[in-house]
Amino acid sequence: MDYKPWMDYIKPEDMPNDDLKFIAESAGIRSALALIFCTPGLTVSVPKNAFTEVKERYIVGQYDGRKYTINRLAIECGFSQRYVYKIIKKHLNASRQPKC
């Protein structure tokens, strides 16, 4: 998207619909404009838990066996301690399975 000088005059209330107005207010005018000009006509769905798998890989990679780390990872990733334990247990069980 080529940013033009006239675009400096665009405000969130100038957005063509409420979804883009919300994006302009929360992520910035340029983000909303990028969606408008780079993806016209597309319907975009934003998943609530878009990076769960990435967070799980991060947890498995960072876990060092300490409860302190469980607490830190739970806070960093927005998960409960119980869910962090579940992720680690799932990974440990998967790594113990014999590979054929």
From TrEMBL:
InterPro entries: Homeodomain-like_sf (IPR009057). SUPFAM superfamilies: Homeodomain-like (SSF46689). It comes from the Bacteria. This is Mor transcription activator domain-containing protein. It comes from Candidatus Scatousia excrementigallinarum. The lineage of its organism: Bacteria, Candidatus Scatousia.
